[in-house]
Structures are given as C-alpha cells and as structure tokens.
Design brief:
By secondary structure, the chain is α+β, with helices and mostly antiparallel strands. It is 35% helix and 26% strand. The protein is elongated and about 85 Å long.
Length: 323
C-alpha cells in the first residue's frame, strides 16, 4: 500500500540561477563540436537544433543537497533533495549554465533515504512547512553561509566545461559574465503566466520574478530565463563595448576596429524567444514595453552602423587619394 508521503508533493515554488558568458574559443563551435562539449551524461544525447539558430542543450545532471534554504526573514529551514543543472550553447558562441529546483509547500519532518529524493529529480523538500515568500526572496537576495547556493552549483559546472580540451581559451573580445536569479510561484493550471518583476543590479546581477501555471514544465521556465539572460548579456556587452571604445575620440581605423567584434560575433545573435516554450512567449511583451529590450538593441545596432558609415567615408577618400 502506498502512503501519501510516498507520492510526489505538488511544487509551489521554482527557483534558479543562470550564468552567461562568452565561450573561450576564437572560433565559434559547430553543431558537432557543441554536442561534444555539452555531453554531460553518456546515457543521454545533447539536443542540437539549427533553426532558427544553432542551439545546443545538454541533458540535466543532478547535485544532491542537504542544507538550509536561503530565506529573507532569517528562518532556518533545512531541505534535502537534488538540484538540476544544464548547459546551453547558442550559435557556438554564448555559453549558459543553469541550476534550478522545485519545492513543495511542505515536506516530511525527518530525513528520508536518498532513494526517496533520487526518484524526484530537481526537487528539494523542506523539513516541515516551506516559507514560500521568504525563500523566494532569499534566493533572489543570494545565499548566505551554509545555505543552498544555486549560483555556486551553476558556476561549478560552467568552470568544468570551460576546461574542455575543445576550447583554445582565446576569446575574440573581452566581456563580462552576468548572472540572473529567478523565482516562479506556481498558480492554478489555466491561469495566464506573468512576469511580475525584472531588475538590474550591480556586478552583472539580474533578478526575475514569475508566476507560472502549475502545469508549466520546469524546463520551460528555465528556458525562458536562459533566453532573458542571453539577450540581457548581449545588450550589456554591446553597451559596454560602445561606452569603452570612445568612438568620438578615436580615428577612423580605431573606431572600426573597436566595433568589429560586435559586427562579427554579436549582432546576428539577437533572436528573442527563439527557444522559449510557446505558452511563455507572451512574457517577452513585458520586457518589450519596459525596459524595451528590442527597442534598445535596435538603437545600439543603428548607432554602430552609423559610426561605421561615418568612419568609412574618410577611409574611402584616403584610399582613393592614394590609388
């Protein structure tokens, strides 16, 4: 006879963190090399698609955890289970590592054998009642000492892949990593998913708060946040590239050289919600209204094109005068 405790509890909260960086390879990886890089498990294949862009997604790997959950009110809640981690590579150029878990409203009062948790991949069960709101805010704030640190788990896998022998560790341009923390409160099936908050913080940190129907797969939530993180990274990187190039003070050749990495490696990567679950595509509309992701990107692209056009004129005259 199966007891109620043996049945998987319905998750009420999903939390995750995405780390995004430029792949340390001078040449972008093709589909075959991407699959080789992301093959984290011998028993599962890497998913590779070429339309509408080259995209590779690794199988999930699990990390067992037994620690306190981060909470905003200082509540000490021990939890046990497994955190799921996966890696995505877009156009052979942008690498992302994501760690995430689901949590039920309550868990058993005593620790169960590991077999109990292994058959619930990506689920972390609290001892007793879950302080849902405090846990969500704690994850967004960041883990303290002795607390479940999703960023550390995602970073550990990212570091492992960056040591892969396929990579020559020669980057075509300098860039910074970003990390996006996200939480999703579960709402009844049939209700409309909502993106309730997106914030930019210092040191490359972004936070996203969602409300997702309970029948939305966790992998779909992770995919949405990876897509947001990727396009935020593109915006952040190109803005920094333009700000640090001092185009107005640079001569024509220097200006073209400063902008060339953006043209060669980044401008073609802008493709919002290309890999997002259809049920969540409408959440991009929130970011298109405020802060206006695509509008800002189009302005940046036009600025780059205008600068290249302006700088090309004297170079053309110079070439003609010496011919």
């Amino acid at each position: 006879m199966t007891t109620a405790l043996a049945q998987p509890a319905r998750p009420v909260l999903v939390c995750g963190e995405v780390r995004t960086c430029l792949l340390p390879s001078f040449q972008a990886l093709d589909g075959r090399a991407a699959a080789q890089l992301l093959r984290l498990r011998a028993d599962e294949h890497v998913r590779v698609s070429e339309r509408p862009n080259l995209y590779a997604l690794s199988p999930e790997v699990l990390t067992g955890v037994d620690c306190r959950l981060p909470t905003s009110n200082g509540a000490k809640v021990r939890a046990v289970g497994t955190v799921a981690t996966r890696v995505a590579l877009t156009e052979g150029r942008l690498l992302q590592s994501t760690a995430y878990f689901s949590a039920p409203a309550a868990g058993p009062d005593t620790r169960r054998p590991w077999g109990h948790y292994l058959v619930r991949p990506g689920v972390v069960e609290p001892f007793g009642k879950l302080p849902e709101q405090a846990t969500a805010q704690g994850v967004l704030r960041g883990a303290g000492r002795g607390e479940l640190d999703l960023g550390m788990i995602a970073e550990s896998l990212l570091t492992r892949l960056l040591r892969h022998p396929l990579l020559d560790r020669k980057v075509p341009f300098k860039s910074r990593r970003t990390h996006l923390r996200w939480t999703a409160h579960r709402i009844p099936a049939g209700e409309r998913a909502e993106l309730t908050r997106f914030t930019l913080a210092e040191n490359g940190l972004r936070t996203v708060e969602l409300r997702l129907p309970e029948d939305t797969p966790v992998s779909a939530a992770a995919g949405l946040c990876e897509d947001l993180a990727l396009h935020d990274w593109l915006l952040t990187t190109v803005v920094h590239m333009l700000d640090s190039s001092r185009l107005a003070a640079a001569d024509g050749r220097a200006a073209v050289q400063a902008l060339r990495p953006a043209v060669d490696h980044l401008l073609h990567l802008w493709m919002p919600h290309a890999q997002v679950d259809r049920s969540l595509v409408h959440l991009w509309e929130v970011l298109e209204r405020e802060p206006g992701f695509t509008r800002q990107w189009q302005n940046l692209v036009q600025r780059i094109r205008d600068q290249l056009a302006v700088q090309a004129i004297p170079l053309l005259h110079q070439a003609l005068s010496t011919s």
